């Protein structure tokens, strides 16, 4: 029996337009029949139906061609094009400076990157027409707009010329059952001799990959030069060089008595130069490592997954693997990864404000429709927008588009290349910069005072001095060097470094723990979070969904409970009619955006977990065949993408009798409210009150079992769009809001999504840490409450629905807000209002979101968490941290590391200020008291101590990982100062201890121990360094607890760095005599040094036992003189600073205002009222 192919037409019949019928005999081709059709017929109304009719031999089937509905377009002048030949040539002319993009050696494609770039920036219809439209692009890029690129593509044979791609392009889409023959007799011999074996080798060579060129790393020598270009270091270098020159003169240029040893005064000058070099090298290496760490982090941050069509199959690929010629899916919430031309779809609207600044929603028109309208002379370009711009957001609709530019050639890529800049300072870094400036003023003032006092003494001793001129100059340089070194030690340049190291270390670890930090400051902010507003699905639950219960036409099944009386799904399916099965399968398969995957995960489908669960039910229970076959056999007239306000999505399909069926699925109780009828075994019946109550009780029964309930409803229409339901934006489409009434209830299912293991424990830990956890979900109130109880979120608080919440007046909302634990049936706007109101109450809010409409809430929160698996690209772009596993436990991890970052900085701050106070006072007092005006610590020794406290200690203390104990305290308030009362107590207490020990050894040592002066100086230096090493252990705690070794065995950085410091000090003591102006000490003296330094450990216990309230009272009394001195020094240093010319505008902006900094420092020193006393526990 012979058969014929039926070429059916896609799209609703236009009853008011003429219809043309063309007979296609068996074996005929549609292109033969349409070759003489006027260009007035739109290619968009043609499609292929690969069904074989069962007509008898000799019969023929009909294909119908319908004219497009172009009533919504501007006036058309038939037979003329909108663009002249000259205009087309001008459209592809290179812009000045971009000529290189138009010339590619051995280009086997029809177009150069430069020609494709002319499509956009700005959008250019003349360029689109000049390139042959969508068909010319398809041919020139050697791709297929239906099947996409071939996964087997490597090196392409032959060459397509520009003329071959752009001439004789068909006006009607030629549909064949295979890949079109793009090249036929127009293919030229290949000019490329490249035999690259890598996938898409020629395509990548010509058009590049979808990645931006790596930002050129700053060379190490440049970082060293920047680090060295510090005014203080330059001043110290000048003094060291002069000292070295004088030392060399005294050694080699002056006469020495016979038999006297050769002077080695030059060694100190050389040692200072070497110490400066080491400080610069270590600082620049830290910057170098930091820069590399953030480059790796940014690369991870920018990577994401997109849906592409290759070899006719939808698949998930990395955004970095998108190539020119790829066909990509567009879905609501997508962030467009590359420039391109819209192929086809349903009601696609984009927000291009981030790329073009236009805030309007822009509806996209298919490339073939645009080409047809151009050829008809359309002059209004506003109705013809086939351009898909990278960086824009898909707001609604679904479709596909052809990629034309990637990477640095794309519109968004060019913007990013122009906007590349360094990482901005975080709030904590800015705060520390101000504090560092305050400390530097005090240290600088002390150094100036020291220099003035010693200079007066030096000048007073000159008249009776027997020193030579060179020796006097050397003595003066020694005074200057010590004063400058005090400034070097006093300036805490390690503070910003500590923040950077802590953030770099934390963000790197967080990536391994499924937290991708996009905005650096969020890492430190998360440590102070006071409330978390969490989604349910995928965050609190496993997001592994399975349909376990359901009810259709009065029949039910239950695969969840095991009480013995349940009907299982297999028996349930046997009792369904084939017509009902077909309706359910259509509701699930056609009304879905999921697609078949390559593995067995999620029932073999890729997409929303709810949709994959429904598709799994259709496949395993209802015996659904291939999803691709189901969809290819359906004629879709219109799509209604999921809308969070409607809580549903829908699809309109044309049935075999020419009527249309509107299929909807979504939230059960909401869709039930749209229904007036119900499908029963006997047919469609009116939905009575008793039947409605029965269905509501079933839905509530499912919800109480923590099941997500989804309903399926439908309605048939004789035409589309129905009479009186036309959309005001597009008369050929329907307004769904008008149609959602008097629907037919098909059935409801219960989808099980088990709670994630460890979530109840993580929530309990958050609550123990003083963080209030709320659930904000779109599920119904019964399901939400049941799951919240199982998770430990709901205790005795308030459970409220979004529609009720948003109608509360402000005073009532503020009254109830602290007790709301569950917000069910909430919209994204409800979530945004919740977040905004909580912040008004002074809360630090973290919120999770996965949908496009969650963007405002994620932006409004202090820390926005988006879902790495279920989240849309718009949600990820709006968030600060991406949860790569969608797991609530990862939020707890971020909370712990956020607190660890803040603690690391405060630990280092506590350590640094202690050394600052001790070193400055010790140098000042010993220099003034000494008859020769020599400090007990030389310049080289101070530089070694500076290296310890500024760099090595920052590395050690900034890398402490969090322990469970970090959750034993409440979060800090927004206004809490960096330095708490407990920290000030430890700083002052340890400074007193170190000064006492050092002064006793320095001034009483010769009498008590009987050692000569050079040995005493060596013992003092050794003891001072060891006190810093032991005090570093004390500073691992910020509270009043005693165990300073908690988690020490897990921090190998701390152990290794302390080994370096200990090894360095031992080496200095044994072989650094000349450079450090010390002598070797014996075993007894080593014991004295270490025992005296080790006493800082028990002393720290005594300090922690001292009552905080007593210390606060003493600080208020003693702190006032310090504040007065600081203000005077601050004004003086600011005036001196104004005399020094700034290098650039940026440095001027970074200068901290004296009044603001002074106020901040006063708050730290003398305003305990503003500080919340941290009660430590012994």
Describe this structure in words.
The protein is of the alpha+beta class and 1178 residues long. Helix content is 46%, strand content 14%. The chain is built from 42 helices and 28 strands. Strands 12, 13, 16, 17, 18, 19, 20, 21 and 22 form a nine-stranded mixed sheet that branches. It has an eight-stranded mixed sheet with strand order 10-28-27-26-11-23-25-24, with helices on both faces. Strands 3, 4, 5, 6, 7, 8 and 9 form a seven-stranded antiparallel sheet that branches. α9 (231-253) runs antiparallel to α15 (469-490), α10 (266-302) packs parallel to α33 and α32 (888-929) packs parallel to α34. It is elongated, with a radius of gyration of 38 Å. It starts with 19 loop residues before the first strand and ends in a 12-residue tail after the last helix. This is Calcium-transporting ATPase 2. It comes from Lipomyces orientalis.
Biggest sheet descriptor: 9 strands, mixed
Radius of gyration: 38 Å
Let me know the number of strands: 28
End-to-end distance:
95 Å
Strand fraction: 5-15%
Low-confidence stretches: 1-80, 170-197, 1141-1178
State the share of residues found in helices, binned by percent: 40-55%
Structural class: alpha+beta
